[in-house]
Structures are given as C-alpha cells and as structure tokens.
Amino acid sequence: MISKEALGLKIKTLRKSEKLTQEKLAEIIDISPRHIVSIEMGYIYPSLETILKISDALKISVKSLLCDEYYDRYDVIKEKLQDKIEVLSEQNLRTLYIIALNMV
Asked: Which among 31, 35, 53 has a CA at the least distance from the CA of 44?
C-alpha cells in the first residue's frame, strides 16, 4: 500500500490538476481545510470514508489513488535517472545535487 506521504503528494498533485484549492476540496468532501493540509503533508492517513470522497472528487479510482505505481517500477526509474545523470554537465550536476539535498 502507498505510504501516507506518497498519498498526500498524490492527492495534492491531483487536486491541483483539477484546479481545486485545499479549501474547495475540503468543502466538497465535507472535512476541514486543516484536515486536507494534514493529509497532503503526509502527517495523517485519511479514513476509508475520506479516501472514497477524495477519489470521487478528484475523478480517480480508489485503486489508482492507493496504488504506489512508482514502487513497482523502482528499478526502471533508477536506471533512467542514472542514464540522465551520466550525461549532465558539471554545472547541471551540481544544480541537481543542490535540488536533491533540498528534497530530502
């Protein structure tokens, strides 16, 4: 199953693609905006009822919402990243390093 952090990021990305604010999504699914923030930040895992409402509001199946498709493709993603990194200029490699440090 998908981690609460990955689920939160997925919900945030899908919400933005639907051009919904956190407040509007919260209103649609009848929870507080603070609760949406906590879910998107990966602090909490939503209840099944909330997951059902979120999937409906974001027009995605529950299975797709909860599936961590990247976990199953880890080796492929890692290989593609290594290929891209090998051809970077020194300056771009340094920039990528700084970005990566700020992500973790």
From this structure: 35
